[in-house]
Specification:
2 copies of one chain form a homodimer. By secondary structure, chain A is α/β, with parallel strands linked by helices. Chain A has 3 domains: 61 residues, 434 Repressor (Amino-terminal Domain), CATH 1.10.260.40; 126 residues, 3-Layer(aba) Sandwich (Rossmann fold), CATH 3.40.50; 128 residues, Response regulator (Rossmann fold). Chain A contains 12 helices and 12 strands. The first copy, chain A, has a 6-stranded parallel β-sheet, with helices on both faces. Chain A has a 4-stranded parallel β-sheet with strand order 7-6-8-9, with helices on both faces. In chain A, strands 10-12 form a two-stranded antiparallel ribbon. In chain A, strand 1, helix 5 and strand 2 form a beta-alpha-beta unit. In chain A, helix 10 packs across helix 11. The longest helix of chain A has 16 residues. In chain A, 47% of the residues are buried. At the A-B interface, helix 4, helix 5, strand 2, helix 6 and helix 7 of A face helix 4, helix 5, strand 2, helix 6 and helix 7 of B. Chain A binds a DNA duplex (16 and 16 nucleotides) through helix 2 and helix 4. Chains A, B: Keywords: DNA-binding, Transcription, Transcription regulation. Chains A, B: Pfam families: LacI (PF00356), Peripla_BP_3 (PF13377). Chains A, B: This is Substrate-binding domain-containing protein. Chains A, B: GO terms for molecular function: DNA-binding transcription factor activity; transcription cis-regulatory region binding.
DNA sequence: CTGTTAGCGCGTTCAC
DNA sequence: GTGAACGCGCTAACAG
């Protein structure tokens, strides 16, 4: 039996005060005398009032909503970002509007439009490759924006992330230092993966080394594609001594194939991944990887928005969170 | 430079029509003559109008928002639920409001209150253990509700899930059929895990078999706790021949410990899990598990709400989605 | 098919 | 510390 909707006015009548007093009692209790406050709270309980943030948001132009746009949620790091952002936002009385867009830019464009129609107080975007139209809209509406999970010299507003090219550099240096020279690459065709492989190749080239062979699979590269990719790479170039993958999932597939061929990893073949896939099936998985703290990035992004909303405009607009190169399986 | 906000009235002026015509052109294009429609669309583009669903929702009492409340998002199955629900909702023009509550009921109570303040058109809840106050609120507001991931004889509204007791039964039968008799249990202290272990024990008891020893860890049981738990179980009862775990993650920890003791799994020790953790680190992980299709449950829940919102009230209110017992590692 | 009128429920701005 | 009037931007219901 849905009871008739209870409004703030009903509460006001029940408490014997004016509507605005109820509003204040709910939103800025310190501005209301304790006695009045108690009366209001009692009336709220008695009437079963639930506040209406549609009306509130419309009147105040503050929706207490923050949108988070992610390509997928089925990756541990992105799930961590959701968790990290949610924690911060909830603590500050905000709610999360989640958008999942996959890896196609045009989907983001549509989603951003839909999201903006809710008038969120802030938007967190993954990556910094957006259509012009998306950028326009965001700038026009004037909502604070954090681009995350990437670095860019021309941010829409704020940036909290790391450079995927630097990741590529670091991986190249790591492998070169260990003496590897004949490189294969296996990458998913998502833009950030591309930046990593780009950085990887550039860093190699500086040392006069070239990638022997590269293969690409559709994003987000799944494990079987990693294995199949490895089959092709190793069949065509049996003398490869290192394979650089755009994700741990792909790397995992490569590892399985390598082991089934009796290759010792990393002695015969080094494998590098990216992400933070849990390799706990192995006591000590013999592949190195680059790890990023998703929860931290999510929390920092949320915090950046909250600061801005508090009028605190002093912080850096561009923050490099860095990443961690994890070396495993070596002697 | 945030431009001044563009309202529907601005568009109406620009198009030379009345505001309501713009509204219709945007929401029910088929009710508007093509010529008018074109004029409006042109005006929308020219002005850069973005619709305001706060205002729209307030006026129409339809927010086009559906809330999904989950204990965590860092579990593959729950992430799949988000994905499944998002897909259906997006296709129908709805957006997802995500709430993550952990495993404490009082947190859900607060979150539900906050969520209802957005006046979502529907709410999807995980499980069916809610405080009275939560149930009251939901019933009072009259929002369509789907309780999922569980079965209950006294639903708030609709239910789409499976019986955790049946899962326990099925596991018990499976292990008994294979000849195992000396059972240990390792479970997280979340309510649904409790129902599974309960069902497991009852089914065993019917065959005159009792669980030798049970241990509990805080929800959501992590892998190290699985391993530590296994140490204690096996130290105290070296003659166990099967361990029933409340999750694959715990089971995985048990597996690692078993292997490090040189136990053959499942010949010397059977291990049962629950969930759909990807054990791809193993070519053929030797533990059986129960698998649930999260994406399907998410999509079905969303669809159930959408049907209701379309006035379609004919479907079953209680749907048992079932689960799949996956036997692995046996001869 | 399109326009008019009248709110939706609340917060802002001033007064008191 | 509390109240009154007004408007946020849009849509329901009817009229034409």
């Amino acid at each position: 039996m849905p009871a008739p909707p209870v409004t703030l006015i009903d509460v006001a009548k029940a408490a014997g005060v004016s509507p605005i007093t109820v509003s204040r009692a709910l939103n800025e209790p310190q501005l209301v005398r304790p006695v009045t406050l108690a009366k209001v709270q009692e009336a709220v309980k008695r009437t079963g009032y639930v506040k209406n943030m549609l009306a509130g948001g419309l009147a105040s132009s503050r929706s207490k909503l923050v949108a988070l746009v992610l390509p997928t949620i089925s990756t541990q790091t992105f799930a961590d970002m959701v968790q990290g952002a949610t924690d911060r936002l909830t603590a500050a009385g905000y709610q999360l509007l989640l958008g999942i867009v996959g890896y196609e830019t045009w989907r983001e464009e549509i989603l951003v439009e839909t999201i903006l129609s809710r008038r969120p107080d802030g938007v967190i975007l993954t990556g910094s490759l957006h259509t012009d139209s998306t950028r326009q809209r965001l700038l026009q509406i004037g909502t604070p924006v954090v681009e995350t999970w990437d670095m860019t010299p021309h941010p829409i507003d704020m940036v909290i992330g790391f450079s995927h090219e630097e990741v590529g550099h670091a991986c190249a240096k790591h492998l070169l230092d260990q003496g590897y020279r004949r490189f294969g690459m296996l990458t998913a065709n998502d833009p950030r993966a591309g930046q990593r492989t780009q950085g990887f190749q550039v860093a190699l080239a500086k040392q006069g080394v070239n990638v022997v062979v590269a293969r690409q699979v559709p994003a987000p590269g799944a494990l079987p594609q990693g294995r199949i990719g490895a089959v092709k790479l190793l069949d065509e170039h049996p003398d490869l001594d290192a394979i650089f993958c755009s994700s741990d999932t792909l790397a995992h597939g490569v590892l399985i194939e390598a082991q089934s061929r009796g290759l010792r990893v990393p002695e015969d073949l080094a494998i590098m991944g990216f992400g933070d896939l849990n390799f706990s099936g192995y006591t000590n998985p013999p592949l190195s990887t680059v790890k990023v703290d998703g929860a931290k990035i999510g929390a920092m992004s949320a915090q950046a928005l909250l600061n801005r909303l508090d009028g605190d405009d002093t912080a850096e607009r561009i923050v490099n969170t860095g990443f961690e190169l994890i070396q495993r399986g070596s002697t």
